[in-house]
Amino acid sequence: MRTAHAPMKYRLITLWLVSAFLALPSAVLAHDLTALVKASKRSIVGIGTHLKTRRPPNVLMATGFVIGDGKTIVTNAHAIPKVEQPEFERLVIFIGTGRKVEVRSVKLSGKDETHDLAILRQSGPPLPALKLAKPEPPLAEGSAIAFIGYPIG
């Protein structure tokens, strides 16, 4: 379990990562940022561990977002929690809000510590995938962007 806050370097990397994935043209942001946030929230999941004998059994450690086929989750590599007891503890995602949270097991599919990226795969029904922007032409310096997620730590 992580006990210390991530160094500033990791926070800056996280900000860069999220902005790179969610960079949107200024016109889109100005048009309806609230609709963008509302539509994107369904694609944000919690990431943590589940251990039946622990109280509480679920520990939220990070967040990520669903992409592609609805079974792939992207997050920061440094945010992947260490599973202390692999024979009993599971790496999981948390879906939903409030008291209606679903817990699903995931597997670490890939990890690139140099770029602080991790890919998780879940085998349950597909989740709503985040639609990533493909700005044409590439964003100009000074363009507006939106950060969406839930920073933990």
Give a nutshell description of this structure.
By secondary structure, the chain is of the alpha+beta class. Helices cover 20% and strands 31% of the residues.
Quick tags:
single chain; 153 residues; alpha+beta; globular; disordered N terminus
Please tell me about this protein's structure:
The structure is a single chain. This protein has 153 residues and is of the alpha+beta class. The protein contains two helices and six strands, in the order ααββββββ. A six-stranded antiparallel β-barrel has the order 1-2-3-6-5-4. Strand 1 and strand 2 form a beta hairpin. It starts with 7 loop residues before the first helix and ends in a 31-residue tail after the last strand.
Write the layout of secondary structure elements.
Elements: H1 8-22, H2 26-41, E1 44-50, E2 58-67, E3 72-75, E4 90-97, E5 100-112, E6 117-122
Antiparallel strand pairs: 1-2, 1-4, 2-3, 3-6, 4-5, 5-6
Q: What value does the Rg take, in angstroms? A: 16 Å
- Terminal CA distance reads 12 Å
The percent range for helix content is: 10-25%
Strand order within the widest beta sheet: 1-2-3-6-5-4
Order of helices and strands: HHEEEEEE
The count of strands amounts to 6
Strand content: 25-35%
Major sheet: size, sense and barrel closure? 6 strands, antiparallel, barrel
